[in-house]
From TrEMBL:
This is SET domain-containing protein. InterPro entries: SET_dom, SET_dom_sf, SET_domain_protein. PROSITE patterns: SET (PS50280). SMART domains: SET (SM00317). It comes from Ceriporiopsis subvermispora (strain B). Residues 46-205 form the SET domain. Gene3D superfamilies: SET domain. Pfam families: SET.
Amino acid sequence: MVITKIPANKRSLPADAYTHVVCLPEVKKAMLAASGWPAPFSPPSPPVYEIKSAGRKYSNGLGAFAVADIKPGDLIMQERALLITSRHVALPKGDKGRLREIFLEQCWAEMGHFHRKTMQALHNCYGSDAEPLRGIVDTNALPADTLPGPTDIGGIYSAVFNHLARINHSCSPNVRYRWDIETFSGQVHAFQPIKAGEQLFISYCDLEYPRGLRQEELRKLYRFDCACPSCVLPRYQGRLSDWRRLLIIEQAFQDLSKTDADLRAWATNPRLPDPMLVDAAEIWYGWMMQERVLNSVLLPTVLERLCKAYCALEDEGNARKYARAAAAYEKALEGSDSGWGIVAASPEKTSWWGLRVRARRQQAPSI
C-alpha cells in the first residue's frame, strides 16, 4: 500500500479540496496519470444546510439540518473526503496485527493542520476499544465504490468526510449519499421534500433488513440503539413495516425484463382493465416511499412503468408526477436525471402517449 494526495501538484487549492488516499500502487499510478481528473465542482451556494447540535436524542452530538426548503433530487452537499483508505490490504511481513493502523498513522503524519484538526473533531464510537484514528475512520467512513486503476485489483475503499460525516442515521432517511468518481467527491441528494429546520438523515445499514437485524447491525458497527420513526413503531405496525421491506427486496429479485412487453400488451388491448398495471405499481411505489427504501432495481422499474402507463392513458398530471419522481431518484442515484426532466416537461411527446386511448378508438364500433 502507498499514500498519496489528490489532486496532485495543485498548491493553489484550499485545504478542504485535497484528499489523502491509502491505496495500491497501481491505483496511485492510474490516479496520477488521469488527464484532467478529478473534475472541479461547485457545491450549492449559499449552503442549504448547517451543522449544529442534534440534541439529547443524539447524546448532544452534531447533526446536519436544512436551512431552506429542499426539493426531491436537489443536491444538498458535495465535498472531497479528508481520507480514503482501503478496507482490505495485503499483509506484508511484520506487525500484521496493526497493519491498518500503521498505514493510517503514516497517512496522519503526512496530513496538514486542517485535515488533522477536522479528523480529531469527528466522533469515535469505539472509545478505548480501538486506536483513536482507526476508531474515527470506522465510525465515520462512507463507501467510495470506485477509484481509477485496474478493476480487478482496485479493492473496496472507504471515505471519511468533514460535513457528510455529521449526517445522522435513520432507517427512514430523507437523503441519499453517492460517491462521484468524476469529481472525486461525495454527494448528498434529497429524495423526499425537506422543510427548513428538518434534520437530514442517511442510512448506515441495509434498509431492507427487518427491524431486529437492523438494530443488531447498528449496535455492532456503531454502538447505538436506533430510535428512528421506523424502529419505535408499535409491535404490530413494526411487523407490517418488516413485511413491506421483505416484499420489496423479494420483488426486486423477480424477472422485470418483460416490463415493456407487458406494458405494451396492456396498452394496446382495451379489453383489459385500465387499473390492471397501474394499481399494483402504485402499491409498490407507495410502500417504498412509506418505508423510504429506495431499492435500486425495483424503484426505477416501477417509476418507468407508471409514467409510461399514464402516458398511454393520456393522463398528463400523473405522467408528469412520476417522471419528476424518476428524475429526482436518478439524480440521487446517478447525479443526473437521465433524461426524465425532458419527459416531465413534455410527456405528450413520448412514444407511449395515447397508446391505450387510440386502441380504444380503434375497437369502438362504427355507427
